């Protein structure tokens, strides 16, 4: 006699589904800060203030002076998959904003208590709602300047296992500081103010270019070692700064890329940058590179990572070549080492190059070659 057992596959309830989805987008306080800064930038904010308590575990507040939200938009903004950025799947391949899925506010509301207060630029008074899970409170009118204030509290109270894996408040704030500082370099026209436990940690007010902001973040010496980049190749435009080969760092922390105003991490961009510096930077050292890259929106796919960090290029080799040429095409001043052979050769009509082939000793008997190219622009 055959025994028939009950099936074991069951449909999840909507709340569980949303909490799982939220975990893909929001894994720590810095994830919330990133998503909300992107919303503020999409709202055309010129000033973004981030207040953090206890590394973001107790409180996260972000205030912007963007266009603000209409009262009717506040009622649906924190619901799953509600967005002003797209109306059909085809729109994803022509997106020019940083957010588009309608996941950020909803995901936050499923892992914390979310308070939204906003005044649209055409409204006379502000509106406030509070969202928890899929429930949104009745709106109430409040005094508020044009723009939006988002307040996050009780983070991961309903998901203790996620809270257990967070680091110390100091470490979590370190992640937040890194994200805010990176945004400040990709968007030098926007003022960023960051406070932790009431103490100001970063204020970019008055510095409206990448050079000044690098001076704030890394000091005057790093600022003096910068080389501006401006490169055009058909439909790809690259602007930003790179460091002299002598100014390097132990990791890629200061290699930042913006694609059409969207901060991304891309192995193609990292490789193109390092390959361009291959002959002038020692192994396991990383030059600074802050590059904004503009290319047709339909030539990239931004919908391949839950947090929108990665990106796919339609013509990856084309992008790689453009970045490498953009960096290689600008003169750098390498530091000649002692006991180096030197020869001078023409580079092109306005630049001469001196090549220094040097032998450096590593640990033990291991050796490696370092080739420093010393370029000098000749002005007529």
Provide a count of the helices: 10
Helix content: 25-40%
Number of DSSP strands? 21
Classify the fold: give the CATH topology of the largest domain: Heat Shock Protein 90
- Radius of gyration over all CA atoms, rounded: 24 Å
Annotated CATH architecture of the largest domain: 2-Layer Sandwich
What's the number of structural domains? Answer: 3
Low-confidence stretches: 89-93, 333-380
Quaternary structure of the protein: single chain
Mean pLDDT: 80
CATH H-level superfamily title of the largest domain: Histidine kinase-like ATPase, C-terminal domain
Overall structural class, as computed from helix and strand content, comes to alpha+beta
Percentage of residues in DSSP E strands: 25-35%
Any idea what the shape is?
globular
Could you give a short account of the major beta sheet? 9 strands, mixed
| Alpha carbon gap, first and last residue | 98 Å
Top CATH class of the largest domain: Alpha Beta
